[in-house]
Design brief:
This protein has 308 residues and is mainly beta. The protein has 5 helices and 16 strands. It has a single domain, classed as Lipoprotein localisation LolA/LolB/LppX (outer membrane lipoprotein receptor (LolB), chain A, Clam).
Length: 308
C-alpha cells in the first residue's frame, strides 16, 4: 500500500473516531418526536452546542480493548487490523494494532506532542510538537490534533458565536469555521433531526471541508451503544464508524468492542502509556524540523520521506 494512503487512513482512523449520542434529551427547541408530525423549526446553535457539551461531560476516558479496522484502499480490501485504544481528556491518546500477531501501527499523543508509526509506510516513527504543528508543518495526512477528542464525542464545544446551523430536512448541520495547517476549513457535525435511541445515533457524523467545498474526510456513525460509566452514569459511544477520504479513495470501517468509560488511570500507567516510544530499530522523524534521528541517536537532515 502506498505510504501516504496507508498513513492517511490508519492514522486518521485513530484520530477521528466519531461518536453518536443516543437520545436528544431536551437539547432545546426545534426537534419533534419521531412520527409526531410536530413542526421542526431550525434549532439555535446554542441548543446543539449545549447538547454536545452535556454528552461530552459524561466521558473523561474511553478504553477499547477490542478494536477492528477494516480498510478498503482504492476498492481493494486490506487484511483487518486488530488493536486497542485509550483516550483521556484533553490530549492523551494511544492506539496500537496488529495483524497476524505482528505490530502494524502505533498512534499517540500527550499534552506536548503527537506521533504515529505504520509498518507498511516509511520506516519512521513520525512525531511533532503541538506548538510546531500550529505554526503549520508539512503533514502526510489531514490531521488536526484537537479533533481527536472532539470526534470521540469527548470534547466540549466552544463559544456559541463561532457556530451556525443549517437545516436540511431530516438532518441538521452544526458548522464551525476553523483552520487546518494554516488553511481555512469548515467542521460540520451532522445531527438526525428526529429523536432516536441506540443503536441508532443522534449524531450522524462529522466532516471537514476545505475552502473550495471539497471534502477532506468524513466519519459516519452507523451504530452506537450505551454503557454505564465507571462512576455509574449512562453514556454513549460509537460502536461502528465508517471513515472516508474521497481524495485518497480510502475507506475504513471501525468496530469498537470491550469498551470502558471513565476508567481511572494511575499516574505511572498514564505516563507510560502516553509517552512516545523509543524503539531501537526504528528511526524517529521530526515533522517540524524535517530531521531523522537514527536508533544510534545520529541526527541527520531529511529532504523528505518516501511515499512508498
Amino acid at each position: 500500500m502506498p505510504m501516504r494512503t496507508t498513513i492517511t487512513a490508519l492514522s486518521v482512523s485513530a484520530l477521528v473516531f466519531a461518536t453518536g449520542c443516543s437520545n436528544w434529551g431536551g437539547a432545546g427547541k426545534g426537534i419533534g418526536p419521531i412520527g409526531s408530525g410536530a413542526p421542526r423549526p431550525t434549532p439555535e446553535p446554542a441548543d446543539l452546542v449545549r447538547y454536545m457539551n452535556r454528552e461530552a461531560a459524561k466521558v473523561r476516558t474511553l478504553s477499547c480493548q477490542d478494536l477492528d479496522i477494516d480498510v478498503k484502499d482504492k476498492g481493494i480490501l486490506v487484511p483487518t487490523v486488530h488493536g486497542n485504544m485509550m483516550c483521556q481528556k484533553p490530549r492523551n491518546f494511544r492506539l496500537t494494532g496488529k495483524a497476524a500477531g505482528s505490530p502494524q501501527l502505533d498512534f499517540g499523543s500527550n499534552d506536548e506532542q503527537f506521533w504515529f508509526w505504520v509498518k507498511q509506510g516509511a520506516p519512521y516513527l513520525f512525531h511533532c510538537k503541538y506548538t510546531e504543528f500550529e505554526k503549520g508543518v508539512d503533514m502526510p495526512f489531514p490531521f488536526q490534533p484537537e479533533w481527536v477528542v472532539q470526534a470521540l464525542g469527548m470534547a466540549e464545544y466552544g463559544d456559541v458565536a463561532n457556530y451556525r446551523v443549517e437545516s436540511k430536512g431530516n438532518t441538521i448541520d452544526l458548522i464551525e469555521d476553523s483552520v487546518l495547517q494554516g488553511k481555512p476549513i469548515k467542521k460540520i457535525t451532522k445531527f438526525n433531526a428526529d429523536v432516536v435511541a441506540a443503536p441508532k445515533s443522534q449524531v450522524l457524523g462529522y466532516s471537514m471541508v476545505d475552502a473550495a467545498g471539497k471534502v477532506i474526510c468524513t466519519a459516519t456513525v452507523n451504530e452506537v451503544r450505551q454503557v454505564q460509566t465507571a462512576d455509574g452514569e449512562w453514556a454513549t459511544y460509537p460502536r461502528k464508524v465508517m471513515l472516508d477520504w474521497p481524495q485518497d479513495q480510502m475507506r475504513l470501517e471501525l468496530t469498537l468492542d470491550k469498551v470502558t468509560l471513565n476508567q481511572v488511570l494511575p499516574a505511572e500507567q498514564s505516563a507510560r502509556l502516553f509517552t512516545r516510544p523509543n524503539w531501537p530499530s526504528i528511526q524517529n522523524y521530526d515533522l517540524a524540523r524535517r530531521v531523522q534521528v537514527s536508533p544510534s541517536s545520529r541526527v541527520q537532515p531529511a529532504g523528505g520521506y518516501s511515499q512508498r
